[in-house]
Structure formats: structure tokens, C-alpha cells
Hints:
Layout: H1 9-32, H2 46-71, H3 81-99, H4 107-127, E1 144-145, E2 151-152, H5 155-175, H6 179-200, E3 208-210, E4 213-214, H7 215-233
Antiparallel strand pairs: 1-2, 3-4
Helix pairs in contact: 1-4, 2-3, 3-7, 4-5, 4-6, 5-6, 6-7
Amino acid sequence: MSYFGLPYVHAVFDVAAWVASMTVFWLTTRHLLPADALPAHKVPHPGAYAVAAGAGALCGAMFFGTANALLSGVHALGFSMAGGIAGAIAAVEAFKRITGVTGSTGIAFAAPFAATVAIGRLGCFFSGLADFTYGTPSSLPWSVDFGDGIPRHPVQLYESAAMAAMFVLLIQRLRARDRFWLANGFYLTVGWYALQRFAWEFLKPYASVIGPLNLFHMVCLAVLLYAALMIRSGSGACTTA
């Protein structure tokens, strides 16, 4: 019996990722982060802030996911984690500009985001070929046959492992009340996500748009540049000891 492509397997892991995200958010905001680092203490309208982030994530995920599918010859609605984080960032930064908020407001979401990707990508892995997140053919010992007789890079597991490692590091630095990580933890997390995702995109069968680069390469470069600029500009400055 194949464990790939089972009905509802992706939904099971999506629910698990959501539960893990909410649990991590609750634990970090109550036990690891100082009060003045939380969004509720930094933005004038926390509810509107959350709506903006959620709407941006949904729009970005669907737009870039569907665009990449169409470019790759797949006529179906797509959903992209890379597009989702890019959309959320754009929406939140627009919200902050409109409301006059300065500084980083995302540290509370850094660990939940890392946990979501680490668990959610397992759903992509077990969904097999239907999910269109599999890797290119490979002869490496850990290559996986998703059901079509072709051993492939398990890029979903690469990404899951990379973000699990970031999750562990981030929790360690927050527990230590590291000032730099408290100030820039969100930028470091999304920057790492973009960097590792950029690398794995070379191992996916997506259509290129510029040279060897596909649409998600472009998205990841934009997110990585954003993170680097925010850290360099000191936008996440934190005064908590």
C-alpha cells in the first residue's frame, strides 16, 4: 500500500499545523516574549492588523500559487506558502504605514510560522504527485518514488527540516531573552525561509521565468531582500533587557 496521495492526508496535516501554530503562539506570547514585544502593545487596532495580515496571506498564497501552476502548464487553483508570507508582509507593512506604526510587530508570529511550515510540508510530502510540490528526478539514496516510478528529491522534507531547525534556534534565543533576536526574530525567520526555499526551488519542476529562476525564486528574493533591509535599518529595535 502506498502512503502517498491518500484522501484527506493534506487536510490532516493542515489541521495539525494550525493546532501547532496556535499552541506555539499561546506559549510564546505568555511565557517567552516580553509584553512590549507583542503586537497588541504596538499597533492601535490589533483586530484590523490581524485581518490585514490574514487577507494579505490568503491573496498572496492564491495569486502566486495559481500563477506558478499556470506558468507550469497546470490549469488549477494553487496555494503557495511563499506567496502567502509575501502577501502577509505586504499587507502588514501597508497597514503600519497607514496607521503610523514603526518597528517590528511580527516576533509573536515567527515561531508559529516556522512550526506551520515544518508540519504543513509533511502534508505536502504525503500528498505525493497530486500536490505538485515534489522534486525533480534524483539518484540520491534518499530519493522518493511518489507513485510514478521516478525517484525524486523529497524537497518537502528538506523544507520541513530547515524550518524545524529554525524553530528550535528561535525558541532557544527567545528563552535566553536575546535582544537581537527579540528585535529581529521575525525578519530572521522569514529571511531563512526565503533563503532555504530559494535553494530548493532549483530542485522543483516549475517553469522558469528568468533564466533558471522560477516565479517562487523571484518571490523568495523579494522576501529575503525585505528581511535584510529591515535588519540593517534597525526596524526591529528592541529596548527590553
